[in-house]
Write a structure and sequence with these properties.
Elements lengths: L4 E5 L3 H12 L3 E5 L3 H17 L9 E4 L10 E4 L5 H15 L5 E4 L5 H5 L9 E6 L8 E6 L5 H13 L3 E6 L6 H17 L5 H12 L5 H8 L1 H14 L10 H8 L12 E4 L2 E5 L3 H4 L10 H23 L3 H12 L5 H7 L19
Parallel strand pairs: 1-2, 1-4, 2-3, 4-5, 5-6, 7-8
Antiparallel strand pairs: 6-7, 9-10
Length: about 375
């Protein structure tokens, strides 16, 4: 199946950057959004980016539309923004009514599963794949491609071939809540929040310790602020519910409080850190009031790294057994998706001494609140 014409449902940042990427590869793209302002802003951002790259000619390959009938005859329709399930099912129902079923549909699968979406939508199951592009789309080379229970080999290969043409690295996996990246992100974040609650360091100390040992570009709290705490908390609850509420993945009360206070990270200028013009300018002063043991104990950076990475390794082993993912695929997703120089198994293999658990102290048994 050769893909030449693509429709994108949603003109958020991900949708706009995907449209730009496809147009640069010579495909014809139609970008849809319910809101005219969102479309105009998306096209303005695309035009600015293409001009900066000296490729304004590619703008002719992108058309902004507000009618799903304009997707008729598309080889591929990509679902863009991460919306609630009711909205998504309504949107696909409109697409089918106005344009008919696409030859291939790539539904957004950051947390939800293909099976969950198809339960309320008349899309042909054999031509539906799940797709999660690494963000930011322009720079991140990761693409998680999800095979549903009835997805055909032809559909999977057509999607993977297009992604390779775009210079992306497709990792193909079985349909499951959170796929690989989100599933491994959850225990990492929860371990960092747990260390914060136990007084094993302030956010900047924990971030610095993790960066120092791992070689990663960001620590957990820097990454959370960049993602948006409201977005992350929604994903936390979705994965927790989808997996049957396992104790290891209970959403954090600290993150919940910050979201309730409207402290959402970089986009609200305050989260775990305070931001001036997008640059960290201080640490959130509220922690002294909501964390009983804030920074009480000085912990070696190797111990912090072990505490944050060990649950990721355990989750990776569990995930591999559930969806038959290979160690190579897991390592690839983590390295490309998070920008870490190694995946969890790579750290375990190359730094075995750091994962030898030391005897616990009375401090580790203190209550957190």
């Amino acid at each position: 199946m050769e893909i030449k014409a693509v429709g994108i449902m949603g003109a958020d940042r991900t949708g706009a950057e995907a449209a730009e990427l496809l147009a640069l590869a010579g495909l014809q793209v139609r970008l849809y959004d319910d809101f005219k302002d969102a479309l105009e802003q998306a096209m303005a951002r695309i035009a600015w980016s293409l001009a900066g790259a000296g490729r304004s000619d590619a703008l002719a390959g992108i058309e902004a539309v507000q009618d799903y009938s304009m997707f008729k005859g598309a080889d591929l329709v990509i679902e863009g923004p991460d919306r609630d399930m009711e909205y998504r099912r309504t949107a696909f129902a409109r697409l089918l009514k106005e344009a008919g079923p696409p030859r291939l549909t790539a539904v957004h699968t950051s947390v939800s599963t293909i099976k969950e979406l198809l339960a309320g939508v008349g899309l042909p199951p054999s031509s539906v794949v799940g797709l999660r592009l690494g963000r930011p789309v322009r720079e991140n080379l990761l693409a998680e491609v999800v095979r549903g229970e009835a997805t055909s080999d032809e559909s999977v290969e057509a999607c993977a071939a297009l992604l390779r043409r775009l210079g992306r690295t497709p990792v193909i996996m079985k349909d499951n809540p959170g796929q690989i990246l989100e599933r491994l992100w959850r225990p990492f974040v929860l371990a960092a929040l747990g260390a914060l609650e136990k007084g094993k360091g302030r956010p900047y100390e924990l971030d610095a310790a993790f960066r120092g040992v791992s070689g990663a570009p960001r620590g957990p709290f820097e990454s959370l602020d960049a993602r948006g705490l409201d977005v992350d908390l929604r994903s936390a609850h979705a994965v927790y519910e989808a997996l049957g509420r396992p104790l290891r993945l209970v959403p954090s009360t600290v993150e919940t409080r910050l979201v309730q206070y409207g402290q959402l990270g970089r986009k609200s200028t305050i989260g775990f850190y305070i931001y001036d013009d997008g640059v960290i300018a201080g640490e959130n002063p509220i922690f002294g009031n909501i964390l009983k043991y804030l920074g009480l104990r000085k912990v070696e950076k190797g111990e912090i790294f072990r505490e944050l990475m060990s649950p990721v390794i355990e989750e990776a082993r569990l995930l591999a057994s559930e969806i038959m993912a290979s160690e190579y695929d897991i390592e690839t997703v983590v390295k490309l998706g998070l920008g870490w120089p190694k995946g969890p198994f790579g750290y375990l293999r190359d730094m075995p001494d750091l994962f030898v658990r030391k005897e616990g102290s009375e401090f580790d048994r203190l209550d957190t609140f």
